[in-house]
């Protein structure tokens, strides 16, 4: 008599490998620095030195305000300083003369005291004039606006020829730092102690940013800080991960899924998640024995990461477990095994 017909199945070998323990949260790409550039003086907007969307460096020229009114103020202040310096010099000469004459009782003491006061007044005037000069020079500096940070320039908010004021609420342009950039994401308050414990021990935790559908990894960065309070309405806390973003894969306000790696288990037994079967009583796998029959083996699951699962008990590395075709199997079924990832026998290379 012919033996039972072998059921074709696809199987996989349990292997020893590494699996990461991740905490996943919803997040948004948030610039570390965003600066709205405003004018600090009143005047006509004369020149613009940047292009919209351009990446600028700290100190690069951006905008020029008409400097001529402040050049006039500087000239006036310098002229007043010269005038008051001359008056001070003359008063000091008179003071020296009175100090000599007082020793011969040639002038009253009141006149000497008055002259001392006059010298001090002129000294104050000279100092005030110097302040006016410094103020005019500072305004001239403010006429030439440079980039306060490195980043990308947004759309132009004011066109050349317009009169701008220091009191204007709207700025001239906005600069957003994009390298590095951060992702602010939330995790459950129950997960906070785990993260805090890792941070306090000095561990550097990796953060991966994925797209909206969790299909594509956009960037890899590191956890830099955790917020100082829990949002009671949602039971979550905010975290900030920082990314170098050298390829500009992350864009400000972009929605991302953040995955925080809190632990990496090494040298554990790993199988494809598809081999794991569940019933109301247990979690199990179909193990292929050397005689090409299967047996049901209860297992204990650990961490599941993507399409891989950790087996903490019930299975050893190297054992073959059924991945597809389990619906036709029972204890002792004869199987014809094709290992996942290998070419079927008889197929041309």
Description:
Strand 19 and strand 20 form a beta hairpin. Helix 1 runs antiparallel to helix 2. Strands 1, 16, 17, 18, 21 and 22 form a six-stranded mixed sheet that branches. This protein folds into three domains: 88 residues, conserved putative lor/sdh protein from methanococcus maripaludis s2 fold; 95 residues, Efflux pump adaptor protein, beta barrel domain (Elongation Factor Tu (Ef-tu), domain 3), CATH 2.40.30.170; 142 residues, Beta Barrel (OB fold (Dihydrolipoamide Acetyltransferase, E2P)). Helix content is 23%, strand content 39%. The chain contains three helices and 22 strands. It starts with 6 loop residues before the first strand and ends in a 10-residue tail after the last strand. By secondary structure, it is α+β, with helices and mostly antiparallel strands.
Helix-strand layout with pairing:
Blueprint: E1 7-13, E2 15-30, E3 34-37, E4 43-48, E5 55-56, E6 61-65, H1 68-102, H2 109-143, E7 144-146, E8 151-153, E9 163-164, E10 173-176, E11 181-188, H3 192-200, E12 206-210, E13 217-226, E14 236-243, E15 255-272, E16 277-278, E17 283-288, E18 294-298, E19 300-305, E20 308-313, E21 320-324, E22 335-339
